[in-house]
Amino acid sequence: xxKLPSFILLLxxxxxxxGCGTGSGVNTRSATAESGPVVPWSGVTVTGSVVNLRSGPGxxxxxxxxxxxxxxxxxxxxxxxxxxxxxxxxSLFAWIYAPLTSGTDLP
Length: 107
Known about the structure:
Strand content: 35-45%
Oligomer: single chain
CATH superfamily of one domain: SH3 Domains
């Protein structure tokens, strides 16, 4: 097995994480008339009074926090009736039950 010096390994790792040296980490694909603008995440608003955030997409997963009616979250994905969301003020990725939110629908 080939052994590389640690500084080369760090360089390779940083390039793979940063998008091969593009620097910004921003999606640079151009929008077309057919596809529309590139939007990395969609926003939702919490409609339930106090809603649990979970570590996975279901009630069997641990509660990792709560949000309240009117809070805005960023949807990063989803499974079934569950959205994977980013909670900016908590720097937290978690799951929320989609019917307790409004503002987006996943395909």
